[in-house]
Amino acid sequence: MAVKTNVIKNGKKYYRITKTIGHKDNGDPIKKEFYGSNKKIAEEKAIQYINDLKNGLIITSENYTVSQLMKIWLFDFLNNSSRVKPSTFQRYEGVYRIYVKKSPIAGTKISNINPIQIQKYYNKLSESKTYTQINTLNTILKTFFNWCSKNGYIVKNPCLNLSIKGKKSDIIKHTMKPVEILNKKEIQTIKTYLRGSDYELLFLLALGTGLRRGELLALDWNHIDLKKGEIKVEQSVKEVYVYDSPEKKHVETIIQTPKTVNSIRTIPIPSSLISKLENVQNKKGYLFLDNTNQLLKGKNVSTKWSKILKDCNIPHKKFHSIRHTYGSMLLQKGVDIQTVAELMGHTAISITQLYMHSELKLKKTSINKLNSILN
């Protein structure tokens, strides 16, 4: 007789039950989920937990420290939520581990945490960390404390009116790096080097569509319409840590939704690439696989890209520079900035404007060729 289960967690089937383990001050019940390979085991775990709670063997809610409760929030709630991407959870866990787990606020009881403590911690961090790093921490803490407030652990979110040192405009001004692009000579050299190789189509599609690396590697033939000459961007590949428990994790290559809502888009395929795609013999499944018929890993593509540039005697640029080149080329050809932003899936025009600076630099270089005539 098959074991009955009612939920899948980290790829495994479990039976889940929910029990009331106490009540908040306003009378609302405090509920907790218990998992087992079958209903009987889940029930036994729930009974054991409730007995331990009655016998004082489990920390009550008012005695949780910030670190303890944030760990529970992460691994018992977020890690089991279908609304949180594995890549997002990985980022949250990293922030918790680096900035909260052993921080000055870690051992503070959740009921005692206040804005002054957190502000002093941020001020100390500002001596060695950037505005962006502290702001990311604040954003995640704010989300955590919102959850604490909704569940009755605290009355008010202590992160609502804090001051983070540094101005966004100053940070952007001093940390923004020039956009790396490939020039025409470099493009031609790479095209010649890759002709007939397994990576030729990957490079040409990256250059002709501006897709991010993860979007390229997630391309399925179901997303490509050669008759219409269109590609639907609906998913992305990413290598992330999947957490079996707070102490144990493993790496998985996963398919998830793209970076932002704007990243879900339909883009035209240059006509010269349609013939390349028509020549692909197997038009089923994913477009880019390794020699074991598994999805190409992003890190392997980056390693291969570095070798290509080295062999071509081209200064190193990230694989993402191909996407930058696509945006810059469109602007150089007179395509309006709004259209370029939509094609690239940017969330704001300000991101696309970065490519305008690169375009201006190229124009200045070209104009300087007139010096021989003017002098």
Write the layout of secondary structure elements.
Elements: E1 7-9, E2 12-23, E3 29-36, H1 39-54, H2 66-77, H3 86-100, H4 115-125, H5 131-150, H6 168-175, H7 184-194, H8 200-209, H9 213-217, E4 224-225, E5 230-233, E6 236-245, E7 248-256, E8 265-268, H10 271-278, H11 298-311, H12 321-332, H13 337-344, H14 349-367, H15 371-374
Antiparallel strand pairs: 1-2, 2-3, 4-5, 5-8, 6-7
Describe this structure in words.
- This protein has 375 residues and is an alpha+beta fold.
- The protein has 3 domains: 1-58, no CATH class; 62-175, DNA polymerase, domain 1 (Orthogonal Bundle), CATH 1.10.150.130; 184-369, Intergrase catalytic core (hpI Integrase, Chain A), CATH 1.10.443.
- Helix content is 46%, strand content 14%.
- It has 15 helices and 8 strands.
- It has helices spanning 39-54, 66-77, 86-100, 115-125, 131-150, 168-175, 184-194, 200-209, 213-217, 271-278, 298-311, 321-332, 337-344, 349-367, 371-374, and strands at 7-9, 12-23, 29-36, 224-225, 230-233, 236-245, 248-256, 265-268.
- Strands 1-2-3 form a 3-stranded antiparallel β-sheet, with helices on one face.
- A hairpin with a 2-residue loop joins β6 (236-245) and β7.
- α2 packs antiparallel against α3, α12 packs antiparallel against α13 (337-344) and α12 (321-332) packs across α14.
- The longest helix has 20 residues, at 131-150.
- The termini are far apart.
- 21% of the residues are buried.
Number of strands: 8
Strand residue content:
5-15%
Q: Please, what is the CATH homologous superfamily of the largest domain? A: Intergrase catalytic core
Terminus-to-terminus distance: 92 Å
**Average pLDDT figure:** 82
At the fold tier of CATH, the topology name of the largest domain is hpI Integrase, Chain A
Reading the helices and strands in chain order gives: EEEHHHHHHHHHEEEEEHHHHHH
Q: How many helical elements?
A: 15
